[in-house]
Structures are given as C-alpha cells and as structure tokens.
Design goal:
Blueprint (H helix, E strand, L loop, with lengths): L8 E4 L19 E8 L2 E5 L3 E3 L7 E3 L6 E4 L3 E5 L1 H7 L6
Antiparallel strand pairs: 1-2, 1-7, 2-3, 3-6, 4-5
Length: 94
Amino acid sequence: MSTPAVGARVRIERDETRFPSRGSWPRFRGKTGTVVETNRDEFGVVFGKVWPREDRPGVLRWSGQEPITWFRAHEIKQVARASQRRSAGRTVAA
C-alpha cells in the first residue's frame, strides 16, 4: 500500500478484527477527507473543503472551522491521488 501524500483523498476505514475500535474512533468510520499534513506515520485529515495556497505550492488551505484529525496508516484507505484530483476538473480543447 502506498502512503497518501498531501492533497490525496482518503476514506477512514480499518480492519477492526486486528485493530478494534474504541473511544471516539467509530464516529469517523466511512468518512472521506483530504490529507493536509503528514507526521512520520500519521496523516492529518480535514473533512471539509480544501484548496491550494497560491503563496506556497504544495500546501493546502481550509476554513478554520474544521480541525485536523490525525489517523495512522492502517486506519485510512487512499481514494484518489492528489494529481488525479487536479487533472479531473480540466477539460481538453479539441
């Protein structure tokens, strides 16, 4: 499994037989978000709208209302790479 990069869309899911859920984790099950930060083996995910910063390429912005929620690699599954999302909205002129 490849590790998601900043900007990748991820779904929150994990093998609950190996890693039983406890605490507040179940409320995130099945949600889709965007990776906005990484920290070694943890990924910071925001569940709201994100957009690129013009002054710092490769860095994303989001409204201050959504907090960053941190997940481990075994808790997330990559849905789309960041480069796929950027090119999906473009149209090619014929």
